[in-house]
Write a structure and sequence with these properties.
The protein is an alpha+beta fold. Among the domains are: 62 residues, Thrombin, subunit H; 130 residues, CarD-like, C-terminal domain (Methane Monooxygenase Hydroxylase, Chain G, domain 1). It has 9 helices and 10 strands. A 5-stranded antiparallel sheet has the order 6-5-4-3-7. The chain has a 3-stranded antiparallel sheet with strand order 8-9-10, with no helix packed on it. A hairpin with a 3-residue loop joins strand 3 and strand 4. Helix 4 runs parallel beside helix 6, helix 6 crosses helix 7 and helix 7 packs across helix 8. The longest helix is centred in the N-terminal third of the chain and has 41 residues. The C terminus is likely disordered.
Length: 281
């Protein structure tokens, strides 16, 4: 009995001594869990770290633009409006030898091959063409002002003279006629009209003669119309009325001209050759 009591007392004492140890272990575990929870709260979670984009994927910040007010505004110089150059002015009618009468629409400045040039902008309404001519080249190309009324009158008087036929082949004479037409000289153009004119009683012109005659007539009538402030139709009628007053050429002169054997001379109404010095003024 005594031994049994001693065993029971020993077990109970052991139980008592073991309980504080368990309590201490439990408290230690609780403390460690609390500390772990605090550390976990401070440290970022794995999920949050995974959700954050990698550094390489972050778009770079755009440079901040300076406000427009900070940049110095660029002031463009207004284009100078030029109305006159080399004695010619805008809206003026001029004669360009290769094309006849045209009107200057404007005088403008353009940059060509890195160089700035002043140009006359010339419109040829009948030909539906616009030409740009450097202002410094007008003398070289032969551009001129319209003829004075006195010079127009001289050209009309030229139409009443006797036709002159050179002793050359037609091809040579055709070149000379074309050179006169493109010279821009109103009197020279009137000479071509006079020499190539054919009345109804005279033989018809060849195709090439007709072409040159119409070109010369067109140049002459357009300038006369502008100078006299009339229409081209009225100018053509005036030219034809002057041509009708010229002495008619005879059959002998017509044949000589066709063969290219006539000497440079005036031809009278009977077809006889007369000296140039005897031509009536």
């Amino acid at each position: 009995m005594k031994d049994a009591k001693k065993v029971a007392a020993t077990k109970s004492s052991k139980k008592r001594s073991a309980m504080p140890e368990k309590t201490a272990k439990t408290a230690a575990k609780a403390t460690s869990k609390t500390n772990a929870a605090k550390v976990a709260a401070k440290a970022p979670s794995k999920t949050a770290v995974k959700a954050a984009p990698p550094k390489a994927a972050v778009a770079p910040k755009a440079p901040a633009h300076k406000p427009a007010a900070a940049a110095a505004p660029r002031v463009e110089e207004p284009k100078k409006v030029v109305t006159q150059r080399q004695g010619f002015k805008a809206n003026e009618f001029v004669v360009y030898p290769a094309h006849g009468v045209g009107q200057i629409l404007a005088i403008e400045e353009q940059e060509i091959a890195g160089a700035k040039l002043e140009l006359f902008v010339i419109n040829f309404m009948k030909d539906k063409m616009t030409l740009r001519v450097p202002t410094a080249k007008v003398a070289n190309v032969g551009m001129r002002k319209l003829s004075e009324p006195a010079l127009v009158k001289k050209a009309l008087e030229t139409l009443k003279g006797r036709a002159r036929v050179k002793r050359t082949m037609w091809s040579r004479r055709a070149q000379e006629y074309e050179a006169k037409i493109n010279s821009g000289d109103i009197v020279a153009i009137a000479e071509v009209v006079r020499d190539l004119y054919r009345s109804e009683s005279q033989p018809e012109q060849s195709y090439s003669e007709r072409q040159l005659y119409e070109a010369a007539l067109d140049r002459l009538s357009r300038e006369i119309a502008v100078v006299q402030h009339s229409t081209e139709t009225e100018a053509v009628k005036e030219i034809e009325s002057q041509l009708a007053k010229s002495p008619r050429r005879g059959a002998k002169a017509e044949a000589a001209e066709a063969d290219g054997e006539a000497d440079e001379a005036d031809v009278d109404a009977d077809g006889d050759d007369a000296a140039v010095a005897d031509e009536a003024a």
